[in-house]
Amino acid sequence: MSVLTSRPVVRWLVPVAAVVTVIGGGAALGRFAAEAEPSLPPRSAAQLLVDLQTARFEGLSGTVVQRADLGLPPIAGLLADDGPASLLTGSHTLRVWHSGPKQQRIALVDTLGQRDFIRDGRDVWLWNSRTNTATHRVLADDEDVAVPPGVPATPQDAAAQALAAIDPTTEVSVGRAATVAGRDAYELVLAPRDAASLVHQVRIAIDATEHLPLRFEVFAEGGDRPAFEVAFTQIDYARPDPDQFTFNPPPGVQITEKKGSWDHPESRDDEEQPDLRAVGTGWTTVLVAKVGDVGSAAAAEDVPDLDLLAGQLPAVQGDWGSGRLFRSNLVTALLTDDGRLIVGAVSPERLYEVARG
């Protein structure tokens, strides 16, 4: 079966693209409306890192706007339009509520409806208003779970993933002060030391008082505007009402009960699981997923967008083999004819090197 005719394979482009999104993006976007630069006491990069890692809060709620344009029109058409992949392009608005590690809610609101992730103690709900369907899982006593994997839903999610990558390959500095969602903020700047990375900078605006990330931006080499950004436009640090974390099924909702732990294979959809691995370290890490045989040029009749992808991506070949190449100013992806998807914020030559190995 061709990878270009398999819906289960398409599903696994989502987490791969999501990881790349954290460290890269596509065409430049306009920044959120700028506000006057506040006057704040000097603070070093080391102090800001400590602030981030030691910040504590009882709860918060707010509105988050995410903007992204990865330059992926053909690929975006492949991806599910009701999951994390929908956040890979355009502008999106999310409402978030947080009341400790056992109570969280994220609501993605768009023109087609609303999708909610709700956790209340051991109960976890995923709800889609457009299809009026919900999935319910009861966590084990000692089990924990983060929000659904995918594109970061808040600046905190994005910052956590970026900070986890800090090592000797990263230069850390302090940028200009800013006002975000009406809050004064410091700016922490992360820049790759490795010239092979296509990322220029990651900038994190940190609340000057509460020390939480309020805005997260990614810039490409040569770009003076962010390629990807997610920011609070409104935030309230009061603990939300407990009712916000109670799922009240609407009339006619179809509920699916999931068994087993969150990460147990039996608790997931019965779609093909990918063989996913990371090659390299730091900013030039490349993800490799085994997605099947791509030798067939035929496309399924019910998924013409897959045929569109095969026709639009240029063919490439070398001593590593042959396949199709996608590239933007930050994301490069190689779909090989022997069934591998290789993605990174690096040059095509780096992908060829990995394919060769």
TrEMBL record:
<dbReference type="Pfam" id="PF03888">
    <property type="entry name" value="MucB_RseB"/>
</dbReference>
<dbReference type="InterPro" id="IPR052944">
    <property type="entry name" value="Sporulation_related"/>
</dbReference>
<keyword id="KW-1133">Transmembrane helix</keyword>
<keyword id="KW-0812">Transmembrane</keyword>
<dbReference type="InterPro" id="IPR033434">
    <property type="entry name" value="MucB/RseB_N"/>
</dbReference>
<feature type="region of interest" description="Disordered">
    <location>
        <begin position="245"/>
        <end position="275"/>
    </location>
</feature>
<protein>
    <submittedName>
        <fullName>Outer membrane lipoprotein-sorting protein</fullName>
    </submittedName>
</protein>
<keyword id="KW-0472">Membrane</keyword>
<feature type="transmembrane region" description="Helical">
    <location>
        <begin position="12"/>
        <end position="34"/>
    </location>
</feature>
<dbReference type="InterPro" id="IPR029046">
    <property type="entry name" value="LolA/LolB/LppX"/>
</dbReference>
<keyword id="KW-0449">Lipoprotein</keyword>
<feature type="domain" description="MucB/RseB N-terminal">
    <location>
        <begin position="92"/>
        <end position="236"/>
    </location>
</feature>
<feature type="compositionally biased region" description="Basic and acidic residues">
    <location>
        <begin position="256"/>
        <end position="267"/>
    </location>
</feature>
